[in-house]
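Ligand: S-adenosylmethionine. Inputs:
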Amino acid sequence: MATLGVPQNTIEVLQKHDFHFQKKFGQNFLIDTHVLEKIVQAAGVTKDDFVLEIGPGIGTMTQYLCESAREVMAVEIDEKLIPILQETLAEYDNVTVVNADILKLDIAKIAEEHNHGNPIKVVANLPYYITTPIIMELFESRVPLESVTVMVQKEVADRMQAGPGTKDYGALSLAVQYYSEAEIVANVPPNCFMPRPNVGSAVIRLTCHEQCPVEVDDERFMFRVIRASFNQRRKTLQNGLGNDASLPVSKEQAAEAICSLGLSPTIRGEALSLAQFAELSNRLKKA
Ligand code: SAM
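Predicted complex:
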């Protein structure tokens, strides 16, 4: 099978199978060999690795991953792509294609069965409509992860890397910081995809921490505090926390905890660092 990173070969496969792109699945297939090589290289895939690919499409990047990895599992939601994948990946015996919604799979179990529970590498050109839920699910469900190297919208990559006080800073930036070290490894223009998306893209590598950088008594509670703080960006932190129905915290308790950290009562959530959110949530939890 000829490499699919070459646009002509991709077009041939699509025409042969009379495949029509489904917008609802965020289908923008890569057609640039340099970008494909860059992603696999940035992920540092070796013959020791088990790689989970989310959304293989017609198998363009999967071919590269099969060449470099020990074992690849490719999870694709669109059943129309499964017969195509069987054909484009026919020459590889180290790949399993699974027809499923990635958000409904027990990925920790997959890591257990295919990688003895050791940290796995995730590599993907993600469907943009569910980028954040996929990243959050990987992190929050405590899948053993070594790294996550993914193509995302440029704007989302910027949000992942943002620091306190910037307009892009939010719950996603804090989750990424808490679980990993983020680095944008390439900016990718729309003409590297078929069909072309109407936004710029970037490849970001999240190298997962062996140990989280701050001490938190209850991780889930901290992320509830963080979400509540950013839900109403224009409110002060104490109002945001005190008014959030999902958080068992009164405005007075919020004010007291904020004050005990030496912060101004009028401070907004977007000014707090990860370490400050960790300490705040530890105090609120005790209160
Ligand atoms: N990896 C291919 C490439 O780079 O050419 C395709 C990438 S395309 C941006 C995203 C892929 O994810 C599509 O094949 C789409 O059908 C698949 N997809 C969308 N939602 C999914 C989900 N919830 N679970 C698994 N795959 C999904």
